[in-house]
Design brief:
By secondary structure, the chain is mainly beta. The protein has a single domain (about 30-140), classed as Quinohemoprotein amine dehydrogenase alpha subunit, domain 2 (Lipocalin), CATH 2.40.128. An eight-stranded antiparallel beta barrel has the order 1-2-3-4-5-6-7-8. The chain contains one helix and eight strands; from the N terminus they run H-E-E-E-E-E-E-E-E.
Amino acid sequence: MKAAILLVAVFCFLFFSSCDDDSSNNTSRQIYKYTGYDSSWNTIITGYLWIDLIDSVQVKGRWDFDLVGNGENLGPQIGKGKFEGTTNMLGTMSLNLNPEMIDNNVLLDGSLRLPYRFDGMWSYIGFPGQINWGRFEATQLH
């Protein structure tokens, strides 16, 4: 009986010591200051993107955007949420701000430019196709 208890205790110790909740050890964490523009380059959205995971293919993180200008048909990009996306060796990145939705999506498609910049086009997509679009710029904070 003592051996079984000792075995369970050692297993629990090894299991819980291997878990790492300290996100400060995640070297891929990046924070970007985001500005979204309508198709006429008027500022309509500001906020932040937090990239929590980025590797050679996959990107995951969070966003928090506020409406600051007059904009219609912007889709669900006001407020907070989680995003998922892809990146590649050519320096392009595509993010879906609403990955759990089948339609009603806001997509960010852009280029990672050195130093510390992500910019491109946002699109609001629904069942009928592209509903609205504009440009965006995101600058990494240090």
